[in-house]
Amino acid sequence: SFAGAYVLQVKATDADDPTYGNSARVVYSILQGQPYFSIDPKTGVIRTALPNMDREVKEQYQVLIQAKDMGGQLGGLAGTTTVNITLTDVNDNPPRFPKSIFHLKVPESSHVGSAIGRIRAVDPDFGKNAEIEYNIVPGDGGNLFDITTDENTQEGVIRLKKPLDFETKKAYTFKVEASNLHLDHRFHSVGPFKDTATVKINVLDMDEPPVFSKPMYTMEVYEDTPVGTIIGAVTAQDLDAGSSSVRYFIDWKNDVDSYFTIDATEGTIATNELLDRESTAQYNFSIIASKVSNPLLTSKVNVIINVLDVNEFPPEISVPYETSVCENAKPGQVIQTVTAADKDLSPAGQRFSFRLSAEASNKPNFTVHDYRNNTAGIETRRNGYSRRQQELYFLPVVIEDSSYPVQSSTNTMTIRVCRCDSDGTILSCNVEAIFLPVGLSTGALIAILLCIVILLVIVVLYVALRRQKKKDTLMTSKEDIRDNVIHYDDEGGGEEDTQAFDIGALRNPKVIEDNKMRRDIKPDTLRFPRQRPPVEDNTDIRDFINQRLQENDVDPTAPPYDSLATYAYEGNGSVAESLSSIDSVTTEADQDYDYLSDWGPRFKILADMFGEEES
């Protein structure tokens, strides 16, 4: 503060009568507190006595004030009081850097936005008067750094705005200015309330990962490119002083990445599978580069591969058209407008052309008019059409694209002739309108056809049942007796039942055969049976069979199909004797089954059964 600045005013009171002399008149004086303060003896106003009292030197003062009256019989009475005076701070001191140059060392791997150092300017003021603002003076390297104020310590915090690279620049120098935020206009004449210092930053070299030549790579490849074709390459370098080699590999995340491979040393990218533009149009994956000297140091770059379309599909008519033409049509009428579509991803400006096929160009029925905007019109070339002569016309239209290689297809359009009124409105395109002038509808025709089908089914079933009934009658007839098949429905009584079937012929080969006519076939003329010569007792079985075989071969009454002829003859002189049941014993009591016990364990059960019956 300056000298004579007002501090405060004290006041003392006197109980004496102020009208009596000077007994009530008070005079003020300072007993303690000089030379810092002074007091007006009459008013008691205290003021500063020295200029530039510094709170930073001494903050509090104790001033002893005396108040004394001027008269009275007692010769003047006095009283004292103590006043504590505290100096309040004003912004009268500028900030000052303790040194003019600050040196900082910063690793090149420091992240953007991180604090890389602190500097501090000193301000002896207090409170808000000591608040300092730091700014970087524009100049060398200042655009790579930023500085802010720590509100707690009033330090300047230097932060990184851009990445550092030791190989690009190893040192930076710039100036920092410190100034007060709150200025007091009463002290402007004291001088500028700011200070400047120089900051020098040395960049420290660090082992860094490889750096790709581009932030992103974009490549193109045609679909159906042979496997192993190189489509591009990525490049990364180690910019450190040691300059280590780099290895490349694909960052595998899904199956899509398997469509490509990369050379670990050269960084060339090649196809690993056939690509289909219609299936996947673009591939997006990442390539990782690592240092051979330190594989943990890696960097990554994004690669986008666009698959280019190859013209492999011909254009076709976009939708199936139901085209019709009136019988009373005039030449040059447009009866249908057609468009085309291509399964290939058509590039911008793809054009389709339309024309008639070569074989249809010579026919004077219809023509194709290409509008050259990827559409075409089907026009008539005749003056009228007749449904009775031809109801349907087939028009082959050739559609061709403009890509490379050129693809084309022939699309056959069906044109139906219809009956129309004079305005061209279609009245009927049905087939029955031509052939049924009486007006039978389609439903009536279907009903008639259905009735015919039902009648045919009934006739077929009737004939089938008649045939089945006739067949059953022939098979079940009792008079149908054949040598090879005997059909009977009664159950015989076993060997003792001799009435069911006459087996006498089987018992005696010398029995006289009845000469009966064959009843299984209808003879043409009545023939008398031929007598067979009797069989001698000593006839050999071979001669007997041959004799009977010859008789049947030359017999004109024999049936024209295979039959079974039974010859009941048993030879003589067998060592094992007769095995036939003919002339065998007739009762089980005459049988002896003891020999079954001699046949072994397999016939034990059989031997026991017949042995028990015998016992």
From TrEMBL:
<keyword id="KW-1003">Cell membrane</keyword>
<comment type="function">
    <text>Cadherins are calcium-dependent cell adhesion proteins. They preferentially interact with themselves in a homophilic manner in connecting cells; cadherins may thus contribute to the sorting of heterogeneous cell types.</text>
</comment>
<dbReference type="Pfam" id="PF01049">
    <property type="entry name" value="CADH_Y-type_LIR"/>
</dbReference>
<feature type="domain" description="Cadherin">
    <location>
        <begin position="317"/>
        <end position="435"/>
    </location>
</feature>
<keyword id="KW-0472">Membrane</keyword>
<dbReference type="GO" id="GO:0034332">
    <property type="term" value="P:adherens junction organization"/>
</dbReference>
<protein>
    <submittedName>
        <fullName>Cadherin-12</fullName>
    </submittedName>
</protein>
<dbReference type="InterPro" id="IPR015919">
    <property type="entry name" value="Cadherin-like_sf"/>
</dbReference>
<dbReference type="InterPro" id="IPR020894">
    <property type="entry name" value="Cadherin_CS"/>
</dbReference>
<dbReference type="Pfam" id="PF00028">
    <property type="entry name" value="Cadherin"/>
</dbReference>
<dbReference type="InterPro" id="IPR000233">
    <property type="entry name" value="Cadherin_Y-type_LIR"/>
</dbReference>
<keyword id="KW-0130">Cell adhesion</keyword>
<keyword id="KW-0479">Metal-binding</keyword>
<keyword id="KW-0812">Transmembrane</keyword>
<keyword id="KW-0732">Signal</keyword>
<dbReference type="GO" id="GO:0007043">
    <property type="term" value="P:cell-cell junction assembly"/>
</dbReference>
<keyword id="KW-1133">Transmembrane helix</keyword>
<feature type="domain" description="Cadherin">
    <location>
        <begin position="213"/>
        <end position="317"/>
    </location>
</feature>
<dbReference type="InterPro" id="IPR039808">
    <property type="entry name" value="Cadherin"/>
</dbReference>
<dbReference type="GO" id="GO:0000902">
    <property type="term" value="P:cell morphogenesis"/>
</dbReference>
<dbReference type="GO" id="GO:0005912">
    <property type="term" value="C:adherens junction"/>
</dbReference>
<dbReference type="GO" id="GO:0045296">
    <property type="term" value="F:cadherin binding"/>
</dbReference>
<dbReference type="InterPro" id="IPR027397">
    <property type="entry name" value="Catenin-bd_sf"/>
</dbReference>
<dbReference type="GO" id="GO:0008013">
    <property type="term" value="F:beta-catenin binding"/>
</dbReference>
<feature type="transmembrane region" description="Helical">
    <location>
        <begin position="434"/>
        <end position="465"/>
    </location>
</feature>
<dbReference type="GO" id="GO:0044331">
    <property type="term" value="P:cell-cell adhesion mediated by cadherin"/>
</dbReference>
<dbReference type="GO" id="GO:0016477">
    <property type="term" value="P:cell migration"/>
</dbReference>
<keyword id="KW-0677">Repeat</keyword>
<dbReference type="GO" id="GO:0005509">
    <property type="term" value="F:calcium ion binding"/>
</dbReference>
<dbReference type="GO" id="GO:0016342">
    <property type="term" value="C:catenin complex"/>
</dbReference>
<keyword id="KW-0325">Glycoprotein</keyword>
<feature type="domain" description="Cadherin">
    <location>
        <begin position="98"/>
        <end position="212"/>
    </location>
</feature>
<dbReference type="GO" id="GO:0007156">
    <property type="term" value="P:homophilic cell adhesion via plasma membrane adhesion molecules"/>
</dbReference>
<keyword id="KW-0106">Calcium</keyword>
<dbReference type="InterPro" id="IPR002126">
    <property type="entry name" value="Cadherin-like_dom"/>
</dbReference>
<keyword id="KW-0165">Cleavage on pair of basic residues</keyword>
<dbReference type="GO" id="GO:0016339">
    <property type="term" value="P:calcium-dependent cell-cell adhesion via plasma membrane cell adhesion molecules"/>
</dbReference>
<feature type="domain" description="Cadherin">
    <location>
        <begin position="4"/>
        <end position="97"/>
    </location>
</feature>
